[in-house]
Amino acid sequence: MSFQPVYVVDGARTPFLKAKGAPGPFAASDLAVQAGRSLLTRQPFSPHDLDEVILGCAAPSPDETNIGRMVALRLGCGLDVPGWTVMRNCASGMQALDSAMANIQSGRSQLVLAGGVDALSRAPLLYSDAMVLWFAQMMAARTTGAKLKMFAKLRPSVLLSPVIGLMKGLTDPVNGLLMGQTAENLAWKFGLTRQQMDAFSVRSHQKVMAGRAAGHYGEIVPLIDDKGNVYPDDDGVRADASMAGMAKLKPFFDKKYGNITAANSSQITDGAAWLILASEDAVKQWNLKPLGRIMDSQWSGLDPAQMGLGPVHAATPILQRQGLGLNDLDAWEINEAFAAQVLACIEAWKSEDYCREQLGLPGALGALDEDKLNVDGGAVALGHPVGASGARIVLHLLQVLRQRKAKRGIASICIGGGLGGAMLVEAAEG
């Protein structure tokens, strides 16, 4: 199967801001607008010249219905540029890129702004069904006496026990498992230890700090809130990350037997990421200087209870189509939903049984060279604003290839519900 390559012209993202127990300073649409405005301002074309705007978002607020259209209008794209929203859980930002690719390859679009966003700190607290029923009965009460009787029935335990919307969103509706519990499944399946997970997580923080010092995060554009405060960098990164510090945290998802903690999981975060995708005709028309090209993409399904292996199931068909081995690529980005999940992907590719039984291969695919993996760290240190992460890893992979004067890499992500997504990218020459 051959794919018409689609050019990535440019990209930008906000700093990823860690949720700190209260709504963050920016709504999802604010994040997307600030990143998009900075990106579009430096282009030779006008926002009106875009053919469409596609935004992935897993958890828009009720006042951000069709957030893609809302953001397109706020960016000044005009009334006639369609804006729309996609949702594929953790890969919503990658889905936006894939949708843009499809429209460019079909000739329906030439120039598209695509990306993802989420403000997870603003995930709502929800009333329980019992509380909603009480409200319905209260509204139906017609007399003062009837209303007083309803107040007498109200129990503080019902009123003061809201449902945490984010926890519902991070729970698989089919098997009832929290995403962290699926990571525990993988740790057990592949015999991963707490020490391995914590060591991976420490390295993630260290890689981000080193990448920041080396100027490898040039895609970040600062945020400014309505009080004039500036947010220049990802704020969940810990320069003091250590094995001793990691060891202090207790397991969160399986408190008795588990090894997955808040520190070896991705952080709850707010952030946005955009890429500009273009056809070859658009590149020539506007004399654009692309970062690279998206050469192939793949979506795959697997058992939701082991959703963290999604990158293995999505990236492997691309390797087979393109005639590539794991280490024929110059760089990999695998989104770090959990340290255990990335480590499990590495182990799955090394497993004769898994590759034969689950991937239909004649044997193990091999050992991924970890020096090529997430070279500037990942979501354990940066955070995982669900809708944005799929776009972030594609954008940063292109930055890594350019910095290393390398040619090609794969960005891949696990997706709640038992899915995986992957994209093969190639850096522009020169």
List keywords for this structure.
430 residues, 2 domains, ten-stranded mixed beta sheet, 16 helices, 18% strand
User: Percent of residues in helical segments?
Assistant: 25-40%
Q: State the end-to-end CA separation.
A: 28 Å
- Which CATH-level-2 architecture of the largest domain? 3-Layer(aba) Sandwich
Kindly give the count of domains. Answer: 2
What is the makeup of the main sheet?
10 strands, mixed
| Rounded radius of gyration (Å) | 22 Å
Anisotropy-based shape = globular
| Low-pLDDT regions | none
At the fourth level of CATH, the homologous superfamily of the largest domain is Thiolase/Chalcone synthase
Determine and state the CATH class of the largest domain: Alpha Beta
Number of helices: 16
Structural class: alpha+beta
Q: What is the strand content?
A: 15-25%
Count of DSSP strands: 14
The whole-number mean of residue pLDDT values reads: 94
Encode the helix/strand succession as letters.
EEHEHEHEEHHHEHHHEEHEHEHEHHHHEE
Provide a concise account of the structure shown:
The protein is an alpha+beta fold and 430 residues long. Helices cover 38% and strands 18% of the residues.
